[in-house]
Design brief:
Length: about 220
């Protein structure tokens, strides 16, 4: 059961390839289905995760020990990586799990590939349900974005409001918007009292001319404007 289906031949036959394709696709769809319960992403992400083990397995089967082809494929993957937008930690982990199982399928170890896919999907779902690595201080962090007219001197204009409502305020940066006619200020903040969010926003609206204000949960992605 745990032996490679390619162990008795140096070439991949149509029958072996068909068996690998069936196991990889079925396992891939089960994996994507289980992962969808806890990972928030798009429908296309789960579709890609479902077929990726088969695609990687197909590539490994075709390489079949050919070093030159393997190097060429590695270069192609590198180009695809640098042309792709970075994803969330969940998406990156999901892709790596799919690729790992795909390598096992491509080498003929179908049982190992299926165990990696389905087993890690279940483990990942269970880990996300546990309240570990959840720090209260991280949940308190908010992203505050304030749009102001270009004529407004923003260095100290909100200082009194921030001192009144915030216990932590860290400037992330400034960005022009509206064809350069406005600025968007970004801050990582912690409220003294979460119930005062509306009061703070109302006070900021008076100072920024009632332009757009956003107060959102803070993530590491927000450190880049």
């Amino acid at each position: 059961m745990f032996d490679s289906i390619y162990s008795n031949s140096t070439f991949t036959t149509v029958g072996q390839l068909s068996i690998m394709a069936a196991v990889a696709l079925v396992s891939g769809f089960i994996y994507a289905f289980i992962l969808s319960f806890r990972v928030r992403s798009t429908k296309r992400f789960f579709m890609v995760n479902a077929i990726l083990p088969f695609v990687i397995g197909l590539i490994i089967s075709f390489v079949n020990g050919n070093i030159g082809v393997g190097v060429a494929i590695g270069g192609a993957f590198a180009l695809i990586r640098f042309r792709s937008a970075p994803g969330t930690a969940d998406e990156i982990a999901g892709i790596f799990i799919s690729m790992t199982a795909g390598v096992a399928f491509g080498m003929g170890y179908l049982a190992y590939g299926a165990i990696v896919l389905i087993g890690l999907a279940i483990i990942y779902d269970l880990l996300t349900m546990l309240h570990i690595f959840d720090h209260k201080s991280q949940k308190e962090e908010k992203l505050l974005r304030i749009t102001i007219p270009e004529s407004l001197e923003y260095n100290d204009v909100f200082k009194d409001v921030f001192d009144k409502y915030l216990k932590v305020c860290e400037s992330i940066g400034v960005k022009t918007t509206g064809m350069g006619s406005m600025f968007r200020l970004s801050f990582k903040v912690k409220m003294k009292d979460p119930k005062d969010e509306k009061k703070m926003i109302d006070d900021i609206r008076i100072l920024n001319g009632n332009l757009e204000i956003q107060l959102l949960p803070f993530t590491e992605k927000d450190t880049t404007l």
